[in-house]
Write a structure and sequence with these properties.
The protein has 288 residues and is of the alpha+beta class. It has 3 domains: 106 residues, no CATH class; 29 residues, no CATH class; 135 residues, Nucleoside Triphosphate Pyrophosphohydrolase, CATH 3.90.79.10. 23% of the residues lie in helices and 28% in strands. Strands 10, 11, 12, 13, 14 and 15 form a 6-stranded mixed sheet that branches. Strands 4-1-6-5 form a 4-stranded mixed sheet, with helices on one face. A 3-stranded antiparallel sheet has the order 7-8-9, with no helix packed on it. The chain starts with 19 loop residues before the first helix and ends with a helix. The model has no long low-confidence stretch (mean pLDDT 95). Pfam families: NUDIX (PF00293), NUDIX-like (PF09296), Zn_ribbon_NUD (PF09297). Its cofactor is Mg(2+); Zn(2+).
Length: 288
């Protein structure tokens, strides 16, 4: 199982982030490549992968974040000021369906870092402006010296299972016919298992017992998140919706989930896209 936004081929090169001389040499490398963006959306090359520019095309005023190295060749992304917007826009949806998995992983890292920088321009300790350092993998306050580093927010995403059926739900913002696994942020003082049981009960009124971890995935939209996919054993199949969270929820069989994943005619619902971990979770469940 290879969830979306995983499998980047780049060496993250942590060893050079604090080495000013080594980082300067990378910036001066004529082979350096710069990720092409339209705001925060990726530009797609004619052959279907990410579009990269030569470092010679820069104006010289851009702040660059080091994404990593490939065969010694540095790869950067410019720090742009852009609103994260809706990841379900037609442009980003279309781009992600075209990108190879490795390129999607590179883009996911770039977008997460850019959004983090845009949200941390001021020090959380004293309120003064911060400056980028560590090759773009940190910000430092010019007043109090506080160092800030990118963080990832953990999110549980899960299927409740009862007598050979899985619980899926939809939010009002989903495209018509689309259903997915339930999901929610972990809260302070809570384990993964507790968060899974709490979120399922809060959103659908279903009480669960044992929880099994399946896989995880970085998710670069709305800030950097780590999606932790699980399956939980439900104690009954009675659904009581929290309509502030979900528009609908239903129990589906493996055959129905299999038909949705295959995009078959007459399917009961539309499955999440392949780059979403809910897609990987459904595939795991139907094959279990």
């Amino acid at each position: 199982m290879n969830p979306g936004f995983t499998g980047s081929p780049l060496d993250r090169a942590d060893r050079v982030r604090n080495d000013v001389e080594a980082y300067g040499a990378l910036l001066a490398d004529w082979r350096a490549r710069i990720l092409g963006l339209d705001g925060l959306d990726p530009l797609v090359a004619s052959e279907g992968g990410l579009l990269w520019h030569s470092i010679a095309e820069l104006t010289g005023s851009e702040e660059l974040i080091l994404l990593g190295l490939s065969d010694g060749k540095p790869h950067f992304v410019p720090l742009v000021e852009a609103d994260g917007g809706m990841f379900r826009s037609p442009a980003i949806w279309r781009a992600l369906t075209m990108l190879p998995a490795e390129d999607a992983a590179i883009y996911g890292t770039a977008r997460s870092l850019i959004e983090w920088h845009n949200g941390h321009r001021f020090c959380g300790k004293c309120g003064h402006l911060t400056e980028m350092f560590r090759a773009g993998w940190g910000r430092k306050c010019g007043n109090c010296g506080k160092e800030h580093f990118p963080r990832t927010d953990p999110v549980v995403i899960m299927l409740a299972e009862y007598e050979g059926r899985a619980l899926v739900g939809r939010q009002t913002r989903f495209p018509p016919g689309n259903y997915s696994a339930l999901a929610g942020f972990l809260e302070p003082g809570e384990s993964i298992e507790e968060a899974v049981r709490r979120e399922i009960h809060e959103e659908a009124g279903v009480t669960c017992g044992a929880v099994r971890y399946v896989t995880s995935q970085p998710w670069p939209f709305g800030g950097a998140q780590l999606m932790i996919a699980c399956v939980a054993d439900a104690q009954d199949d009675a659904i009581t919706l929290d309509t502030d969270e979900l528009e609908d929820a239903m129990w589906v069989t493996r055959d129905e989930a299999r038909a949705a994943l295959a995009n078959e005619e007459g399917r009961r619902f539309n499955a999440p896209p392949p780059f979403a971990i809910a897609h990987s979770l459904l595939k795991h469940w139907v094959s279990a």
